[in-house]
Amino acid sequence: METAISTENLTKRYGRARGIENVSLEVLPGQIFGFIGPNGAGKSTFIRTLLGLIRPSSGHVSVLGNTIPLKSRSVLKQIGYMPSEASYYRGMRALDVFRMSSRLRRKDCERESWVLSDRLGLDPTRPVADLSFGNQKKVAIVAAMQHKPKLLILDEPTSGLDPLVQRAFWDILHERNRQGTTIFISSHVLSEVQQHCSHAAIIRDGRILVSDSVSRLGENTARRITLRGINELTQDIINFSGVLKVDIHSSESSILYQGDMHDLLARINQLPYSDIIITEPSLEEIFLHVYERGQ
Amino acid sequence: MTIFFHELKQGKKASLITSLSSCILLILIMSVQPKVQNQMKMVEKLIAGLGPLAQAFAMDKLDMGELLNFYSLEAGNVLLLIGCSFSCVMGISMLSKEEGRHTAEFLFPHPISRLSVIIQKWFALIIQLVVFIIINTAGTYISFVMLNQPWDMMLFIKIQLSLLILFVCVGSICFSISAFISHEATGVGVGIALTLYVLNLLINLDVGKDIFKYITPIYFTEPAKIVTKGAFDMYFAKYYGLITAASLLLGTLRYATKDLRI
Questions:
Q1: What residues make up the domain containing B16?
Q2: Which of A18, A67, A92, A166 has the fewest CB atoms inside 10 Å of its own CB, making it the most exposed?
Q3: What is the tally of structural domains in chain B?
Q4: ipTM > 0.85?
């Protein structure tokens, strides 16, 4: 099966500074792929390499079956890209941005730009410079989607959007995904990746820490154990092998634990707790756990 | 052609303001010519008193009483300086402004090759320089007609053509430099224009002529020299044509392969 995005040992260095290091990643057609990482982790460097804006120092990049940057032009016809902070030319209205983008793609997207603007609540006749940050984000979304690309690459798309617009945005994305569009989305917001993406990868210091389906990431063996009615834990529990994190509050204590549950429960049962709740940790917790441990 | 028309649209205001301001200035300068003509003895004395300064501006070689001589020494010289600065400023920002204004991240994810961007932007630059010289030539022509004095039309065309060649040459070289930088560099553009101008003044003063004539294309396109010789030096025309082509090639190679700074 041809991949939508495939990288092998992709490395980009800026002189001595690190960009990304040996990134190998596969995104299959039809996936909504979340790309998670803290600021400076290399998310934008990775995306810009996919688009041919920067050249890899080593490794191989293939997008929609075409090697980048050799065949960037034919690939870019089928890609919609939304940067995290888009800048436009002076004096342009949102409508002018959409028209210029359409002309550069040699495709009439007038109708679709109006439909998308309407759904996102954007007035495209206003000058871009007069628009708020959130509305400028909408301009970027419309410009990226109006030509109905095969692959959408979105860099931090929801930051600055209010919850209602975010909902409209995700609705549009899911519609496009159902129509066959592959979506690669970088985000800080783990809950939205967990909610909307089928697959995710975590990048830290330019390296991929983990890449898997979101459901499998959620199946991580780590568990959060919340003990109600106690506000202290014994040292043998705190120092117990597999305990990743301990939070003690006034009326409850919780433990993030990865290991054999029987061993820990045997110790916990000696405590005078009033209730015990064992849950799967959120993707955020998994991310932080993996991130902190650098696995 | 999207980028080409987009560039023309974006640069329209600045180009027209510069061209019209320069044109008005030329007409004002030319309107002084009859007074200079009537007081030639005093003017000659003044020029003689200027010493090396008169030599630097080639005032010692031409009779200011003649319409075209006056034009080449005064208005033409001003046009040279303004046009040279305009060409350098326009050229130096043409490619780099996409990175400097962070619009590269909008433009380059579109299916357009960098070579195509370079070609369209260069043609947009040339068109703006052509419009600049046309507006100024029209203004100067009107002032000549109003002054109602005999003048050599062919020589005037040669002067204006040589200025256009100069603007295209320095504009293109700055355009190529623009491929190597990632920010707007208006100051660098003005600096290059002034440096080239000063080098030509030094050539006129016989300082470093053997070296500087290969550095500043003003050497072979200066209006006073065209009037004196009746044509520009073909050797230097070819030399600077080659320099321009080489710089464009270098700029293209650099821009086509560079990592865009966003």
A1: 2-257
A2: A67
A3: 1
A4: no
